[in-house]
Amino acid sequence: MTDFSQAIPVDKICYNEQGLVPAIVQDYLDGTVLMMAWMSPESLQKTLETGETWFWSRSRQEFWHKGATSGHLQFVKSVRYDCDSDALLITVEQQGDVACHTGERSCFHQVDSTKAHPPADTLSGVYSVISDRRDHPKDDSYTCKLMAGGDNKILKKIGEEASEVVMACKDDDKSAIASEVADLFYHTLVAMSYHNVDVKEVYKKLQERRG
């Protein structure tokens, strides 16, 4: 377990009149905002000491160890505070990929009372759409046509797009490089979804190779 006990000065945080500070919790891999809750100096200290998130429940007036009952624990990866020292940003590894009490991944899953994918990085967003097309096919969807063609069609496109990336780089055409890499990313994500490999598994591999 990473020692966060000296990560931030608990006594230097600016708490509100109730002695609390808002803590935004974010997925450490794809940046999805999972939830916002309140921390007291004591719950922040518990979070830093245990490496798991602890909050203060304003309704129950007690400490709240996130996931202790549901099993959806949050393992802390980093803790930051803002320029005014009155808000926290905590990145976590979310167990079970569920942070909301409703069973949704993120508490921010509604847009005008309609469920929607929570905001995340672009690749994860595209992967979610691709996987939705896989699970709910549409006749006019290019993604669905690729999926219907199986590995032969998908992998052929990946080979074509990889060659086009090479040619764009050889020509030193920056606009073409960006465009062709985007096409390669998209078709690779289709292959991953076809084989049920979540994009976050790739992020984990990249995290392991950092440094």
UniProtKB/TrEMBL annotation:
<dbReference type="InterPro" id="IPR021130">
    <property type="entry name" value="PRib-ATP_PPHydrolase-like"/>
</dbReference>
<keyword id="KW-0378">Hydrolase</keyword>
<dbReference type="InterPro" id="IPR026660">
    <property type="entry name" value="PRA-CH"/>
</dbReference>
<dbReference type="InterPro" id="IPR038019">
    <property type="entry name" value="PRib_AMP_CycHydrolase_sf"/>
</dbReference>
<dbReference type="InterPro" id="IPR008179">
    <property type="entry name" value="HisE"/>
</dbReference>
<dbReference type="GO" id="GO:0004635">
    <property type="term" value="F:phosphoribosyl-AMP cyclohydrolase activity"/>
</dbReference>
<keyword id="KW-0963">Cytoplasm</keyword>
<keyword id="KW-0547">Nucleotide-binding</keyword>
<dbReference type="Pfam" id="PF01502">
    <property type="entry name" value="PRA-CH"/>
</dbReference>
<dbReference type="GO" id="GO:0000105">
    <property type="term" value="P:L-histidine biosynthetic process"/>
</dbReference>
<dbReference type="GO" id="GO:0005737">
    <property type="term" value="C:cytoplasm"/>
</dbReference>
<comment type="pathway">
    <text>Amino-acid biosynthesis; L-histidine biosynthesis; L-histidine from 5-phospho-alpha-D-ribose 1-diphosphate: step 3/9.</text>
</comment>
<feature type="region of interest" description="Phosphoribosyl-ATP pyrophosphohydrolase">
    <location>
        <begin position="123"/>
        <end position="211"/>
    </location>
</feature>
<dbReference type="GO" id="GO:0004636">
    <property type="term" value="F:phosphoribosyl-ATP diphosphatase activity"/>
</dbReference>
<keyword id="KW-0511">Multifunctional enzyme</keyword>
<dbReference type="InterPro" id="IPR002496">
    <property type="entry name" value="PRib_AMP_CycHydrolase_dom"/>
</dbReference>
<keyword id="KW-0368">Histidine biosynthesis</keyword>
<feature type="region of interest" description="Phosphoribosyl-AMP cyclohydrolase">
    <location>
        <begin position="1"/>
        <end position="122"/>
    </location>
</feature>
<dbReference type="GO" id="GO:0005524">
    <property type="term" value="F:ATP binding"/>
</dbReference>
<protein>
    <recommendedName>
        <fullName>Histidine biosynthesis bifunctional protein HisIE</fullName>
        <ecNumber>3.5.4.19</ecNumber>
        <ecNumber>3.6.1.31</ecNumber>
    </recommendedName>
</protein>
<keyword id="KW-0067">ATP-binding</keyword>
<dbReference type="InterPro" id="IPR023019">
    <property type="entry name" value="His_synth_HisIE"/>
</dbReference>
<dbReference type="Pfam" id="PF01503">
    <property type="entry name" value="PRA-PH"/>
</dbReference>
<keyword id="KW-0028">Amino-acid biosynthesis</keyword>
<comment type="similarity">
    <text>In the N-terminal section; belongs to the PRA-CH family.</text>
</comment>
<comment type="pathway">
    <text>Amino-acid biosynthesis; L-histidine biosynthesis; L-histidine from 5-phospho-alpha-D-ribose 1-diphosphate: step 2/9.</text>
</comment>
<comment type="similarity">
    <text>In the C-terminal section; belongs to the PRA-PH family.</text>
</comment>
<feature type="domain" description="Phosphoribosyl-AMP cyclohydrolase">
    <location>
        <begin position="35"/>
        <end position="109"/>
    </location>
</feature>
